[in-house]
């Protein structure tokens, strides 16, 4: 999974193509819980590019897009928000897949 490097990059990705941004942090146990099955999800939904957003590095961005709990996911296609799965709760593989399926 690519890691977000700048706000400019976020704007570029958000506005060009199909992206799912995963807001996370290294210290977050619920975020680490989903690590083992994330590659499987990325493989299954190749029409999206997945981008890791470090909550601590991009705290202003989190506030801007109303992400106050992690792990959280926001999907965009060509500048339009397709959907969000935002909460502080632990997420299962099935819940993440259901969220992505609901974007279509």
**Percentage of residues assigned to helices:** 25-40%
> What is the C-alpha radius of gyration, as a whole number of Å?
12 Å
Envelope shape: globular
Number of strands: 5
Q: What structural class results from the helix and strand content?
A: alpha/beta
State the strand order across the main sheet: 1-3-2-4-5
DSSP strand (E) fraction? 25-35%
Order of helices and strands: EHEHHEHEEH
User: How confident overall, as mean pLDDT?
Assistant: 96
Summarize the biggest pleated sheet.
5 strands, mixed
Q: How widely separated are the two ends?
A: 21 Å
User: Unreliable stretches, pLDDT < 50, 5 or more residues?
Assistant: none
Helical element count? Answer: 5
Question: What is the secondary structure topology, with strand pairs?
Answer:
Blueprint: E1 2-3, H1 7-15, E2 18-24, H2 29-34, H3 38-44, E3 49-54, H4 59-64, E4 72-77, E5 80-85, H5 93-101
Parallel strand pairs: 1-3, 2-3
Antiparallel strand pairs: 2-4, 4-5
Description:
- This protein has helices at residues 7-15, 29-34, 38-44, 59-64, 93-101; strands at residues 2-3, 18-24, 49-54, 72-77, 80-85.
- It is 36% helix and 26% strand.
- With 104 residues, the protein is α/β, with parallel strands linked by helices.
- The relative contact order is 0.24.
Keyword list:
104 residues, alpha/beta, five-stranded mixed sheet, 26% strand
Brief account:
The protein has 5 helices and 5 strands; from the N terminus they run E-H-E-H-H-E-H-E-E-H. With 104 residues, it is α/β, with parallel strands linked by helices. One of its GO terms (molecular function) is isomerase activity.
């Amino acid at each position: 999974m690519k890691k977000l490097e700048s706000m400019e990059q976020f704007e570029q990705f958000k506005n060009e193509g199909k992206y799912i941004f995963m807001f996370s942090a290294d210290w977050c146990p619920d975020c680490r819980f989903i690590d083992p099955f994330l590659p499987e999800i990325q493989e299954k939904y190749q029409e999206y590019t997945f981008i890791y957003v470090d909550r601590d590095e991009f705290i202003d961005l989190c506030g801007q897009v109303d992400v106050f709990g992690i792990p959280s996911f926001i999907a965009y296609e060509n500048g339009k928000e397709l959907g969000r799965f935002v909460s502080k709760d632990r997420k299962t593989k099935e819940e993440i897949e259901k969220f992505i399926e609901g974007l279509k």
